[in-house]
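Friendly challenge for the regulars: who can give me the structure tokens for this chain first? No prize, just bragging rights.
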Amino acid sequence: MAQTLQILHRDDLPRGGFAGLREHRLVMDPSAWGPYANPTAWPGLGSFVYLADARFLADGDTQLHPHREIDVISVMVEGRIAHEGSLGHGEQIAAPGVQVQRAGAEGFTHNEVNPDDTENRMIQLWALPEKAGERAGYKVYRPQAGATTRVYGGPAGQTETFASQTVIDVVRLKEGQPFSVPGEFMAYVTKGHGRVNGKSATAGAEVKDGDLIRGHDLDFQAQSEAQLIAVHLLT
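First reply, four minutes later:
Bragging rights claimed.
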């Protein structure tokens, strides 16, 4: 991948969907999607293969469906979901909560339901497990303001996250707060705005909610209260 910073704008992409949600698919890696990958979407990074920015219709749901040998990360940005399925049934995830489901060889079925009469917003990411045949598992995280919360990836042997060399962080920033990642990265802005890879308040590129960024050595400066989902490789 080129060293140059690149930005993909969500609203430049076609909007699709299924069942009770409408979504923009920004990442569809050919390793997972093959000929079905949207040509306007980007490939992923490491084992990260999919990112969709979805809005559930009022009282909408995904309908019950299965997954196998995939890790599904759901980041609530607005509203909440009621989770139904073979893992974590009955859990309610309200923004800015995060739900992570590992299918492994066992697989899981799930249905994500908007229990409210207004639209909500959820970012869904998929990652391929690095080791096939893992047991199914379920985790929930509640990222705090002004902090970085790792919701996926990390070294083997720890139990806070599902282990992977590809890591996903949910970053909630206060105005003026910086965030940096060394090496290759992808980052999706889900709230607010800021400047990326600039050494002053006017240098670099301005990015906002709905912008997907990729490049090397991320330096982000929040210019309002902001949230990023950052994907990078374990160092």
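Residues 6-233 form a domain with the Jelly Rolls fold (CATH 2.60.120.10). Residues 30-33 form the longest helix (4 residues). Your move, everyone else.
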